Amino acid sequence: MKNKTTQLTLSFVSLLLGVLIAVQLRSAADVYNAVPDLRVTEMRAVLMETITQNQLLTRELEEARDKLRQFEEMAMRGEGALELIEAELNNARMLAGLVDVSGPGLTVILTDSQAPAMPGDNPNVYIVHDEDLLKLVNVLAAAGAEAISINDQRLLATSEIHCAGPTISINNIRVGAPFVIKAIGNPETMESALRMRDGIVDTLNFYGIGVQVKREANLVIPAYKRPLRFDYARPEGGGK
Description:
This protein has 240 residues and is of the alpha+beta class. The protein has helices spanning 2-34, 40-77, 81-96, 130-142, 187-194, 200-206; strands at 101-111, 147-150, 153-154, 161-164, 167-170, 173-175, 179-184, 210-221. The protein contains six helices and eight strands. The strands form two sheets. A five-stranded antiparallel beta sheet has the order 3-2-7-1-8. Strand 5 (167-170) and strand 6 (173-175) form a beta hairpin. The model is unreliable at 23-38 (pLDDT under 50).
């Protein structure tokens, strides 16, 4: 059983290393094929981009080699390899939004304006719209938020935020005001990004939209609850 576990571990990591090497070689081949049709200035630009990409790939390759060495050493001693793989899987689950996460961050609450609309004003400007949530989420993400939810709907790369009548659809779930946005990350950095001059908070306040921003020592953001489905996207390289 121990030998099988060792072989499985080494095979798993060797496959990862092989994929990284293949990506590096493929990237170099793609650039080489494109060079003959480019002018000298374009070739310089391609060269600089290739150097940058190669440096990134080299760094990733070294990290993979380091992990491979760790796996090999642990497998030889019969200890720790499976635990290290489990830690990697847990990191992947967190990045994919498939587990509850906790940490410091911000709670932001948006409420529709309570001010009466002036004659001739469009009443729609006094309520929270999907674009307001999108802008807010983008600011938080750019400020380093590692996990974000709106009314306990965990946001993924595939999550939609769009108007659905008087409500807003998030992950195909309709939610309404007040909108409670939770973001895990550096509270000071994220709040500064929200409150920058003429930023998202100033814009919402201009229309009377209620904005409450509170720093939290510990937040819990729930996992994404709905099934993940991919009809068109497939793993690169023909993986199943």
